[in-house]
Amino acid sequence: MSTTPVKVAVTGAAGQIGYSLLFRIASGALLGPDTPVELRLLEITPALKALEGVVMELDDCAFPTLAKVEIGDDATTVFDGVNLALLVGARPRGPGMERGDLLEANGGIFAPQGKALNEVAADDIRVTVTGNPANTNALIAMSNAPDIPTERFSALTRLDHNRAISQLAAKLSVPVSEIKKMTIWGNHSATQYPDLFHAEVSGKNAAEAVGDQDWLAGTFIPTVAKRGAAIIEARGASSAASAASATIDHVRTWVQGTPDGDWVSMAVRSDGSYGVQEGIISSFPVTVSNGQWEIVQGLDINDFSRAKIDASVAELVEERDAVKALGLI
Ligand SMILES: NC(=O)C1=CN([C@@H]2O[C@H](COP(=O)(O)OP(=O)(O)OC[C@H]3O[C@@H](n4cnc5c(N)ncnc54)[C@H](O)[C@@H]3O)[C@@H](O)[C@H]2O)C=CC1
Ligand SMILES: O=C([O-])CC(=O)C(=O)O
C-alpha cells in the first residue's frame, strides 16, 4: 500500500447519499485496495452531531484503507489540501418539484465552496458536483475558483448513464456488460437526452437492435429522464444509494480512465463541441486517460438527436442566466 493518503472531501456527509458514499470510499471502492484515503467531511453546524455518529460507524468498520477522518463546518478548513472534492451537500427536491426549482436554495452553497477550493485545495484537485441542480452548481463552483483549471470541474450524469444502460439491457434481455458507448447529453434534468444512436449492444448499433423508434422516443427516453421523480414517488425520498454508486463510478473513471472501445457520460465545461454553447457544464460522451477527460469527437448527430440536445442546452443556458442574475457567477 502506498503511504500518502489521498484526501477526499465530501460535503453533505451526514445526508442520505453520504451515508452510502462514505463507506464505499473508505472501503477502497473509489481508489482501490492499495490507496489509503483521508476523508474530509463538511456539514452544516446542526448536522455535525449526526456526522459524528457516522464517523463512529466508519471507525467500527476498521477499513484498512481509511487512514483518517476529519469533520467540520468550515469549508476552508475541511478543503485544505484536498485532492478530490465530492460536492453532494444540497437540499434534495420533493414530489412535484423539478431540480431547477432548487437553483436559488442550493446555488448559494456552491459559490463559497468554489472560493474555498480555489484558496486551499491541492494543485491536482478534481471536483465532482452531485448536489442538484448539478450542472449549474458545478458552473457556479467553477466560476468562483478562477485559479483551478476549468477541466477539473464536472457534474454527475453517470446515474442517468447507468439508468439508460439498465433500461436498454432489460429491453433487449442482455447483461448490462454487453452495452457500450452510452451517452447522456445536456442537463441532469427531465430535458436530458439519453442517446441510443451511438450506443452499442454486443458490438451492434443499439437503435437498430431495438428497431422501435416509438419505444425509444416514447418509453426509453422519458423513463430514464424521469427516473429520479419515479424514485421520489416510490420511496418518498430521492435516490441515494444509486446516486452514491454513480458518484463512485464517475470519480473512479476520472482517476483510472475508460477502457478501450467504450466511453462514459460526464457533464463538463463545453468547448463548443456539437454546437453546445461554450462555457456551460453539459453532459457529453467522454473518454478519460491519465486523469484527463476528452469529449468524443466526430459523432454524426441526426435531426432527432439535434433537437433533443438543443432543448437541453437551452435549459442550461437559462439556468446560467438565472444564476448570473442572482450574482452567483
Ligand atoms: N446528480 C445526481 O445524479 C443526483 C443528485 N442528487 C442530489 O444530491 C443532493 C443530496 O441529496 P441527499 O443526500 O439525498 O440529501 P440529504 O438532505 O439527505 O443530505 C444533504 C446534506 O447536505 C447538507 N448540507 C446542506 N447545506 C450544506 C452546506 N452548505 N455544506 C455542507 N453540507 C450541507 C445537509 O445538512 C444534509 O445533511 C441533493 O441536492 C439531491 O437532489 C440526488 C440524487 C442523484
Ligand atoms: O431526482 C432527483 O431529484 C434526484 C436525482 O437527481 C436523481 O435521482 O436523478
TrEMBL record:
Task: Write down the chemical reaction(s) this protein catalyses.
Answer: (S)-malate + NAD(+) = oxaloacetate + NADH + H(+)
Instruction: Output the CDD domains linked to this UniProt entry.
Output: MDH_chloroplast-like
| Single GO molecular function | L-malate dehydrogenase (NAD+) activity
Query: Binding of NAD(+): at which residues?
Result: 12-18, 106, 113, 130-132
Gene3D superfamilies in UniProt: Lactate dehydrogenase/glycoside hydrolase, family 4, C-terminal, NAD(P)-binding Rossmann-like Domain
Q: Where is the Lactate/malate dehydrogenase N-terminal domain?
A: 6-149
Q: What are the alphabetically sorted keywords of the record? A: NAD, Oxidoreductase, Tricarboxylic acid cycle
Function, as annotated, reads:
Catalyzes the reversible oxidation of malate to oxaloacetate.
Tell me which family the UniProt entry assigns to this protein.
Answer: Belongs to the LDH/MDH superfamily. MDH type 2 family.
Q: What is this protein called?
A: Malate dehydrogenase
Which gene is transcribed and translated to give this protein?
mdh
